[in-house]
Write a structure and sequence with these properties.
- The protein contains 12 helices and 22 strands.
- By secondary structure, the protein is an alpha/beta fold.
- It folds into 2 domains: 157 residues, Lyase, Ornithine Decarboxylase, Chain A, domain 1 (Beta Barrel); 241 residues, Alanine racemase (TIM Barrel, Alpha-Beta Barrel).
- The strands form 4 sheets. Strands 4, 13, 14, 15, 17, 18, 20, 21 and 22 form a 9-stranded mixed sheet that branches. Strands 5-6-7-8-9-10-11-12 form an 8-stranded parallel barrel, surrounded by 4 helices. It has a 3-stranded antiparallel sheet with strand order 1-2-3.
- The longest helix has 17 residues.
- The radius of gyration is 23 Å and the shape is elongated.
- The two termini are 37 Å apart.
Length: 404
């Protein structure tokens, strides 16, 4: 994405032209950026030779998943719906892992029949359910056990998953007890130790602590795991020149870990693959000027992009036409939803904009469309993909009549 002659382009296509064709609000993705992100991620971990399973919860569009699958990635899913989406996208079952704390009997049965690589169990009760299904289907089910390492990922508290106050996984003692209980089971085969400490992580330090916790389990249990699933959570640069993850330091430690333990690695990136590939295109409806604030009211709301309202996530907002006139006054970019938290950005100054101008909310490829809703009975923003200088519509807009 860049300006040419002060007009904004995504993959060499005018954003204003896209909006003229498709209207607003609309999610727009760059295939070129998706491919670059995947190649970069693979290069960062080339010495570890991991199975890379894209976290479908970050973006579940079938066309996007299909393109990601063609580029060699598997899928990390957390529901039957996500598993169906991955399979429909032609991702191979043996490249799919099923995570999540609340898998139902029906979901586990479905995953078992589809012969996916692993079901990562997160409680003894879940393992008991898997054992029942194994007995009923007369097969041995491959599972992982998820460790909660009590490691602070130093990220937004709402997306931290690896502390003992979080609902995910089991503590060290519980994991070892389960290994000892089921290591000779005729119904389940413990193939993996799984761990995931959070999302939008920008330091390698929490990952190193996580590896140490995993090593403790291996040493104390004396159990030969085939896979170690290290999860994902790698952060992206939402703010220009912000701190980013040092992949090299993390990857070096993973290589040492592999050599010591002779295991295969699974990684589950989501945001780092898809986050910066997506843009939410919108239009300024009104500008309401008060003594202290210019409220820039746009035609997309928290129903389309929930992250800022949900945990004050930051997203850059840029105009499709660049001018030099800057107004040094607080500008609040807000949506039409009847909630005070329907607010995207507050900035001390902004270039001059007018009603009817187009704007772009950046870095919405991850946890954007998937968290959207029809709140306030608003229609959904559909999605388009730019690939090889062509624009493809990749989801449908549901009419108000159908919603109602």
């Amino acid at each position: 994405m860049k300006y040419i002659n002060n007009k904004l382009l995504i993959d060499k296509i005018s954003v204003d032209r896209i909006i003229k064709t498709f209207g607003t609000p609309v999610y727009c993705y760059s295939y070129k950026q998706i491919k670059e992100n995947i190649l970069k991620f693979q290069k960062n971990f080339i010495k570890t030779k991991p199975l890379i399973c894209f976290a479908v919860k970050a973006n579940n569009n079938i066309r996007i998943l299909s393109e990601i699958g063609k580029l060699g990635l598997g899928a990390d899913v957390v529901s039957k719906g996500e598993l169906l989406a991955a399979l429909k996208s032609k991702i191979k079952p043996k490249k799919i892992v099923f995570s999540g704390v609340g898998k139902t009997y029906d979901e586990i049965m479905f995953a078992t029949k589809k012969n996916i690589l692993l079901i990562n169990a997160e409680s003894k009760s879940e393992i008991d359910t898997i054992v029942k299904i194994a007995k009923k289907t007369k097969r041995v089910i491959d599972i992982g056990i998820r460790l909660n390492p009590n490691v602070d990922a130093n990220t937004i508290k709402e997306i931290t998953t690896g502390k003992n106050i979080n609902k995910f996984g089991l503590n060290e003692k519980e994991v070892i007890e389960l290994i000892n209980t089921y290591k000779n089971s005729k119904q389940i085969n413990i193939k993996c130790l799984s761990v995931h400490i959070g999302s939008q992580i920008t330091s390698h330090v929490p990952y190193i602590r996580m590896l140490k916790s995993v090593q403790k389990i291996i040493d104390k249990s004396n159990f030969a795991f085939e896979y170690i699933d290290l999860g994902g959570g790698m952060g992206i640069n939402y703010e220009l020149n912000a701190k980013t993850l040092n992949y090299s330091r993390y990857a070096k430690q993973v290589v040492k870990f592999i050599k010591k333990n002779n295991v295969k690695i699974i990684l589950e990136p989501g945001r780092s693959i898809i986050g910066n590939t997506g843009y939410l295109l919108a239009k300024i409806i009104y500008i309401k000027k008060t003594r202290k604030i210019n409220f820039i009211i746009i035609n997309t709301g928290m129903n389309d992009l929930m992250r800022p309202a949900l945990y004050k996530a930051y997203h850059r907002i840029i105009p499709t036409k660049k001018i030099q006139n800057k107004i040094f006054k607080r500008h609040d970019f807000v949506g039409p939803i009847c909630e005070t938290t329907d607010k995207f950005l507050s900035t001390k100054s902004y270039q001059k904009v007018d009603e009817g101008d187009n704007i772009v909310i950046c870095d919405v490829g991850a946890y954007g469309k998937v968290l959207s809703s029809n709140y306030n009975l608003r229609t959904n923003a559909y999605e388009i993909l730019i690939k090889n200088s062509k624009v493809f519509k990749i989801s449908k807009k549901i009419s108000l009549e159908n919603i109602i």
